[in-house]
Structures are given as C-alpha cells and as structure tokens.
Write a structure and sequence with these properties.
CATH architecture of the largest domain: 3-Layer(aba) Sandwich
Helix content: 25-40%
Strand content: 15-25%
Length: about 450
Amino acid sequence: MSSRPLLLPALAATVAVLAGCTAQAAAPSEPAASTTHSGTPTAGGTIVYGHQQEPACVFGGWIEQSYLSYNVLDSLVALDENHEVVPWLADEWSVSDDQLTWTFHLKEGVKFTDGSPLTAEVVAFNFDHWLAGGNSTATAWLAGYYESAKATDELTVEITLSQPYPRLADNLTQGYFGIQSQVALETRTDEENCEQPIGSGAFKVEQWNRGENIVLVRNENYTSWPANARHEGPAYLDKVDWKFVGDATTRVATLRSGETDAIYDVPAIDFAPLETEGYELHKYVTPGRPQQLSFNTRVGPFTDERVRQAFAYATDRKAIVETIGRGVIPYEGNGGVSQTTPGYSQKAADWYTYDPAKANTLLDEAGWTERDAEGYRTKDGQRLTVVLPYGAGSIINADGASILQGLQEQAKGVGFDVDLIPVPPSATFAGAYSTAEERDIY
C-alpha cells in the first residue's frame, strides 16, 4: 500500500512519545528525597515485574517481544547511553570500502543455554532465518539490502548487502536481532521456540503461564555481557516473575499494594503522585522509528495532497501532548524518528505547525466546501470521513488513546470526521484493518 507519513510525522511524534517515552516505577525503601541507591548489590531473590501486554512469543517483530527477548537472547552489538554501537557477541567489526560487506568477529567461548556453541555459522543461519520470516515483520526492511551471510571461519561471519546500508550496525542493536541456538531452531517445534527460545542471555525462560506470567531464571553460565554492561557475570537475581497486567490503573495498584516490585508504562496522571509517595520513576525516549500515523494515499480522501496537509495543520499537537502528558510525555514535533535517534533533525520536527486557517483554505481548494448538519465537510454528497484504527492496549496505551481523541476533536473543527476504531490486541495481531480499503490513517 502507498502511504505518506505526513503528520504524522507530526502525529507521529505525538504518538511517538507514547511508545517512545515509557516509564517504570519501583517500590521505594526510603523517602523520595533520597531515592538514589548506593552500596553493593546482593545476589539472590525474585523481582515481580508488572508489564502491560502479553506477546504471542518471547521473540519476534513486536516491541513487547523485544523487551522480553533482551533478557534471553544476546545480539551482535549493543547501543550505549551515548547512542554509540559497542561490542556484544561481536568483539569487533568492519565494513568494506564499497559498504557492501560487513565482517563481524565473534567472542570466543560463548555457549547457548542448551550447551551448543556460538559460531559464525550459527549467526549466518540466524540472518537467513530472520529473512525467511522467522522474525515476523521486524526485519522485513532488511530484505531490500540483504544478499547473504556466510562463515569465513569459526568465529568470523560476513554479511553481504545488495546496496549500501551505513546504519546496519545501529539496527542490529535492537531486540529483534537476538541470536538463537541453531540446534534449537532446527530440532524443536515452532511452539517450543516461540515460548522458550534458546539464547546465550542472562536469563532463560523457565515457565510461561498463558494469560498470567512468564518466569525467567538466571543463566548461571552467562559470559557474554555487552561492553556497556554495569555488571559482569551472571545476574544478581535468581528469577524475574514477569506478570501481565493489562489495565494501567490495576498495574499501579499492584505496585502500591506490594504485589509487584516494579511496573512498566505508568500513566502520566500517576507520575507525580507516585514520586510524592516516594517511588523511584524512570522515563526514557526510545531511539528509532516512533509509533507514527501514516496516510493512505492509494484510496480515499488522502489521495489529495491538500487534504493531507490540511489534516496536519488542523491540530495543535504540542498543546494536546503537553496537556495529556502532564510534562511526562515530551513533545517531539513532526520528526519521523525520535529525538534520541542518531541523525535526528530538529528541522524536520518543526514542519506543519498548528494553523487551522490554512487547513480550512486547503480543504476549500480541494473542493470540500460544504458542511452537513453536524459541521463536517462534504463533497458531492459525501462526508469527509477518515477511518483511523489503532491497536488499543497493545500499540497505543491509555494516554495515547487520549491524544488521539484530542486530535479527533480538533480535526472536527476544520470539518474532518475522524472515525477512531480501537482494535483489541487479538484482532491487531490477526491483521485487522491491514488493507488499503479498510483504513485512511494507520
């Protein structure tokens, strides 16, 4: 499908913030004024962690899966706090002058939790596995560049591209590129590799109770920490009890009651009260492509560029984000990538500022000059309706839904009828609203 992520660079960043800016809270042991922790960590124990969404598999092409798989699978390279690529399973790497051949030299002595060794052949197998559909859609973009992967010796793998891609190493730091045991992938069932993938990471999956939790247990033989690791050696924790608590209010309540030790995705409205109560909160903006809305330019009203531009000018995204985000969710403008992404451009982020007068002029020029009894624009007897389905509770959280509702209301001011359709996770991952005929914005 043809698409144009226009505002959605704008809305992109608006909703980028929601997926990009996430928050975790941990129960405090002392007042908020002194929640900076120091001292020597103690080995042992279990942390109960409340997450908002249960994935289909531990490893795959969805961000919720990358959160889990980072604990179980190691990648070739990692990204440090300065957004620099640093060694992980690969000690060093180089790229040819023509930018078509990337060579990675692997650490010696790394083993997967099934006892099989990490070799260059295993890494090459994983690349082919991803491109054959073994990692859902997360690596689909690589198909346009990837030609082959081969082992040139036991610990050296050579990746050949069909065209240059300077950001390959940056992309390989993402959780979608965790390396799995080739033995496990070739000999176990798809269900086994889905629920208990075999990696070389700090933890391994002990048990998955569908609808309730995943229990991760420490890998006692962990030797492959990344160069930027704050701790070298096996994890301090014995286990992580990764609970699925879909409702945000309930998730916060479990933290306050002591049922969980830490939670993910704290609603903006709860941030200040939790800080006042002494909880330690962390927020960050994830590098990469944000959750953004794109226009369907194949069919429907957004085939007209003036209508796309009008929609972008019609909403005061900065005010909406600042109001709903309460200072927790940062406004990123119209950038197609988040502000922590290497190469981020502030110039792109400043496109399409709020200008309803300009939006009205553009819609008039596009022929949407009449209004119906409810104030929506019409043309040739047809209302200017745009369908916007969104992954409720999976891709878009409660704050994100509120932002979309704010955009819906402001777009109505210039005559757009935005049909917001919350799509539950089961339908989202079954492919609901995935065709051009079903959606105008996505």
